[in-house]
Design a protein that fits this description.
Helix content is about 35%, strand content about 20%. By secondary structure, the chain is an alpha/beta fold. The chain has an eight-stranded parallel beta barrel with strand order 1-2-3-4-5-6-7-8, surrounded by four helices. It is globular, with a radius of gyration of 17 Å. The two termini are about 15 Å apart. About 40% of the residues are buried. Bound molecules: 2-phosphoglycolic acid (PGA).
Length: about 240
Amino acid sequence: MKYIIFNWKSYLNLKQTYNLSQLIASFSKSRKYKIISAPNNFFALNINSKFPKNIISAQNIDTHGLGASTGSLDISCLLDGKIHFCILGHSEVRSNFDETDDVVKKKLEICIKNKIKPIICIGESEKIYKLKKTKSFIKNQIDSILSKKISYEELIIAYEPLWSIGTGLTPKIDEINEISSYLIKITKKYTFKNINILYGGSVNLTNVSDILNLQNVNGVLVGSASTKPEFIKFFN
Ligand code: PGA
């Protein structure tokens, strides 16, 4: 079953988040997608308790642990709130908080230890894309974040080119397929039961079917388009 992940970032207020969650909750049970929504972290618990059948993801966690850390979100908050997924290494977190691959790796290890399923975001800048160095760049990201010492249950990796996020630009459909198959190949040396390569970056109603039809792509991570009911209804 392909993953459809709605990353609502900080786009929506509580009422809008509630309305979209209600729409997802009304979908038929026999749908062919696994829909996960990531409301902003402040609303996640509230939405999870109101719509217990919806699958909710956090957008980020911290590495500081419980204690004197104002503004932090510890993994225990996800556990207490029965939230089982967490987005890690999103490019906006990387750039807003100077987050490095080392920090993403630490967060990943915290998630694995606590049985929270991570959605790991990677992707190259426009400069690297133009230099045709995408493969070596994302290989380096993968090798910096994953560990051979850990046995992962399920890996969800979202390939999100930075130049594609929020711009309306996407790689060519063949490029998305090629990068996904490359990611499958280079992650073979790690231990996991199941791997899902997702694509993210300017996914919308016009391109989503083509992307989901790709053999090597097991879903999409969608930002701004996923704040529109017309887009969400497509997955019912
Ligand atoms: P976008 O964002 O769909 O608005 O480009 C994707 C993402 O940031 O995950």
